[in-house]
Amino acid sequence: MLAGETILSVEDLGISFPGAQPFIAVDGISFRVGKGQTLAIVGESGSGKSLTALSLMGLLPMNATISGKIELTTDEGVFEINENTPWDKIRGDKMGMVFQEPMSSLNPVMTIGRQIAEAIILHRAISEKQAKILAIDWLKKVQLPDPERIYERYPHQLSGGQKQRVMIAMAMCNNPVLLIADEPTTALDVTVQKEVLELMGGLQKDYGTAMIFITHDLALAAQIANEVMVMQRGKAVEQGSAKDVLVHPWHPYTQALLACRPSQEHKGRPLPIVADFLSAPQGRDIAAPYETVKPGRKILEVNNLRVWFSVESNWLGKTTQYFKAVDGVSFELRRGEVLGLVGESGCGKSTLGRTLVGLLPVYEGKVKFDAKNIADYTQKEWRKIRKEIQLIFQDPYASLNPRMSIGDMLMEPLMVHNIVSRSGRRKEALRLLDIVQLPADSMRRYPHQFSGGQRQRLGIARALAVRPQLLICDESVSALDVSVQAQILNLLKELQQEFNLSYLFISHDLNVVHYISDRVMVMQSGKIVEAGTAEQVLKHPADDYTKRLIEAMP
Length: 554
Description:
The chain is of the alpha/beta class.
């Protein structure tokens, strides 16, 4: 096949689900992808991006109804994708897919190498010995260190970035004509994201693979795609070359997605949201800047903090080797101040955050909160002070009890810490929902009935229930769409203004950190390598590691 020749043709694709009123998830979209070309499909959660990808792979739920025409062109001829498609010949051979969450796509009880070898044996008439050689070769191609050793490892023994590379190797090992990547870099830090994108681009160039790249990040789409299709509520609202769509967008929705990304000009004022563009296009220009919050008294002081974990012991049980997750960290945080913390995965950011709320033990050092050293507090002592320091987790779904209604979830901390009287708890829970802009009927609902952005708001409401002085936000907007992310960041700034809250804001997104933070610390291998004002650190970095992080930003 010649470069640019059409590999995938989709005409008038429709996907619907039954009900009293059938739900139309994808509504008549059409597109083509050529050999060696990349189509980026962008849009918010619920726009139909992932369902479109699943329909191409024949992985839609059983109750889905699909219409339209899908054709895949291979060296063996043209395959029409429908209920009669020979999936054993297509899936994993002619088409490969890289999923968003590699840990849930890899078998936890099989070694990495065995999983890749199995994918090869399934589609090729070769021995297990030959398959092992090919699998190790692919581990080399995706630039994993010591591929022979990685071959024998299990998924939980690899980092997030390494697992994503394994998924790419599995998807590419049979040289498919089409690769579908569904949000493959969402949870990765900027340097690993850059490496994964370069890897995918290199393999695509080597094998002439057509690629569909699904993302909610328009900067990523600009970096990797030839063509872009913007989806909103199941429809393709704008389509064309990456330059036309992302540099000169004509549709208000595309303009909104581009404008919602935090940038230097947004610092100190509310971020625009999609509704600003769809209802009043100029709404964002009249947003008044936030009032400047002057930092108050010192609320948190950390001196030479070490969080070490035992990794090796002698026969007497005495530790002979430690893993130094946090190694000699010192900083202070004042009332009403936002301190950003950035660094790659594994640098110790989340360990530091969890230690500050008493979820991990301190090996050495001091943590003073309101001038009291809380580093050696017992669980009983922590119960008294924990209401003052709250943590907003990265994954709200994993941190919300699926069996508790939202009302019970918000009223429980009010009861435990005796915040309000029994008769006033419901009223207070409704007030918390109002603060995070969720309707009163949320009280009766359960976590699974909310979107990702709404669940994040519930996590914030629960943290605010005990009226804390300090909020630790651990990657709390990383996996959200740009529009939902803008709403949550606006909410955090408004709460800071209203309640004079202090934040330790942990993130790998440097644009977000620059937008929300007054000061920034950069962490590498358990140590703080650079600290200063947000402008100073992220616009005029002194440390080489900080410069590398900034250069890796899309």
